[in-house]
Amino acid sequence: xxxxxxxxxxxxxxxxxxxxxxxxxxxxxxxxxxxxxxxxxxxxxxxxxxxxxxxxxxxxxxxxxxxxxxxxxxxxxxxxxxxxxxxxxxxxxxxxxxxxxxxxxxxxxxxxxxxxxxxxxxxxxxxxxxxxxxxxxxxxxxxxxxxxxxxxxxxxxxxxxxxxxxxxxxxxxxxx
Length: 176
Hints:
The chain has helices spanning 12-15, 24-37, 39-52, 59-79, 81-94, 104-118.
């Protein structure tokens, strides 16, 4: 990637946040509840990325997602540590591809604990595929004006003679 002198890169101190130091199976085990818990922060970040088309402008939204994830795992550790660990270990050890199908019993125990102690209900199947409107306080970015090039090639005049193609139409089967 080429970076010119006028590109402003953020300082390392702006990018430094505490990392979520968790394994893949643990994230898979927590994914449904984590997605529901941090839905607003994640949607805000994704909307910023889509609208701004520049990740550097969305650093604060990304930090909010990381902070929400850390907060979620702290709450789970405090309230449902044993149930969650059982489920995460089951996901890790029961299959080679971290399939959830072998762990339905431990999932049920963890879901009940999450609902009872943290009031986080496991979202229904297909919840994250549903279309939703996200309400944001962030102002919409200004649209960049289209570039106008003064030396653009002018178009052909409308009254110019248009000769038929030399070797016929390439869509000959459509001309009847």
